[in-house]
Amino acid sequence: MKKKYGLWVTAAEKTAMKKVLATCPDQKLPTGGNPTNAPERFKAR
Hints:
Layout: H1 11-22
């Protein structure tokens, strides 16, 4: 999400994401089959 809209991730966010994702190694990533629309103020790259 943040990459798509050109946003950045703090070191603390990255650490938290890695910690959460490490707890579910067999979980498949979403395929993107049901995308959401961002508010108009955001421009996707």
